[in-house]
Fold:
Amino acid sequence: MDCQPGHGRSVYNWLINNQPCLLCDEPAQQPYPLCAACETELPWLQERCGRCALPMAIDGVLCGQCARRAPPFTQVEAPWHYGFPVDSLISQFKHNARWPLGRLLGELLGHWLQARFDDGLPRPDCLLPVPMGRKRLRQRGFNQATLLARWLGTQLRLPVDEHMLLRPVETRAQQDLDARQRQRNLLQAFTLAPRPWVQGRHLALVDDVMTTGATARALAQLLLRAGAERVDVYCLARTAKPGAA
Ligand SMILES: [Zn+2]
Ligand SMILES: [Zn+2]
Structure:
């Protein structure tokens, strides 16, 4: 191999250019398998609730729910609306085990979080994947939140604890329930591992999609009651209010 100045860069460029975009199959020409055109077209979440990231008409104000009663978590970070094509990419990742799609979304979430840390968002002490019930884990074979947390942990150099949060009780499929029923369903579902290292720590929950926020609220409450100082939530996408566009 030639070691002339400038050669390293062209080899690097060749590596970058050589990956096809996972969405359109054109050369990605980026350090990850997504071309700039497809990246721009992703449903980036702009105006959002300053606390729970619910899509809003104006940015930074609180949504009705957070204004009425502050949620137990401090901050939800989500780069995207749960809209096309992110919804379909997440679904293929989860239901068809298309890990490269999950890996790509996870990497972009990592870039997003790093930019937020650079802007002053405090880095957490540890990442905690939202646990999955044993039965569903057996059916699917993997927990997408655990994979995301592992990828984020490596990229952002943050520890991941996969065993602190437990889900011993099987819950009914949440889609069929209204917000109040979901909350009731979830309060009983989660528990902490024996003697969890929680006291005084800043923890961040990791999940793929945040819908009503009931899961995040239940888990954040559990951690704060056990002595956690702060709980944030990192997810790929945030849905609008049920029934909203
Ligand atoms: Zn593309
Ligand atoms: Zn809110």
Remarks:
- The beta strands are 75-77, 80-81, 126-129, 165-166, 191-192, 202-210, 230-238.
- The chain has a mean pLDDT of 89.
- The longest strand covers residues 202-210.
